[in-house]
Amino acid sequence: MKKNLRFLGQVALLAGIYHIGNLIARWAHLPIPGNVVGIVLLYVLLNLGLVRLEHVQEAADFLRSHLVFFFIPVAVDLMNWGGVFYRYGFALALAIVASTAMTFLATGAIAQWMEAKGKACAD
Amino acid sequence: MILFTILLTVGSYLLSKALYLRYRHPLLNIVLLGAGLVITTLLALRIPYAAYVPGRQAMTWLLGPATVGLAVPLYRQRSLLRRHAREIAAGVGLGSLASMLTAGLIALAAGLPREVVLSLLPKSVTIPFAVEIAGIHGGSPGLASAIVVATGTLGSAFGGTLLTWAGIKVPVARGLAMGTGAHGQGTAMAFMEGERQGSMAGLAMTLAGITTATLAPLMVRLLLR
User: Fold this and answer.
1) Which of A76, A92, A100 is nearest residue B154 as measured by Cβ atoms?
2) Taking Cα atoms as reference points, which of A10, A79, A86, A66 lies closest to residue B37?
3) What is the ipTM score, two decimals?
């Protein structure tokens, strides 16, 4: 019982920070989603020690392990978009394949180069 | 109806997850399989999408708090984050730019409608960020999430081979590429390669979401005035 209450309290704290993130984004007219502001906010609060891991980690770990569940209802919206795939399938596939390959290569290459350069400087 | 749609979604999730855990094939994606089962059932029973919306809202209200909770692994790994700060900043930054630029330019050249181009921009980041980024700028959340899953499936199936072919061997670089290029699905793949790759991919996944959200307004102005 006590454990359940603590879990609910942690969910409420995460929900509160998410809500504040939304308010900040709207109030400051940021072109950035509230959940992004919320995650940065929680990271800052953890680093400042104002929120400690034991205040949020059980709820955060549980929700993260089932994160994929929440994606399903979002993806069901796809049933309104069947025509787009039919009409623009080839261009979409090309954009996705080329862009994914470029992202992997760009990130991998610069990170490997910097790692090698860092090692050379340290020697 | 709301109870039926929720039960249908939970059932589809459990079935897709069981199938994925049994075969562990990258093409057996839980999101696509689950959404496919829900859509097929709705179509077969002639239930319109509008009837699914109340259940969808009830189910996704926890997505916001769940996403904020991604700060917890970021904080737990803060020493790793600090130790590789330069590689992470350069890798995630350049990768996020490359992802949006390549996808955006090809989509524009092919003459895709504005709404589709905007749904393509956040294609490399995890769904909760992608959906919000697409939504803010006028894209479609559902289309964006399908594109994200396609990217993740492609990246986790072939990304490792591509990196090896390109001579990218350093574990930190491989992990960063998998997390930046293929979000959660890439991170799962990176953990199969090794602990180091996995941790870096997890960091990169969250940071790529934040970076893409920050750069997207600029990219939208640049590409689609």
Assistant:
1) A100
2) A79
3) 0.90
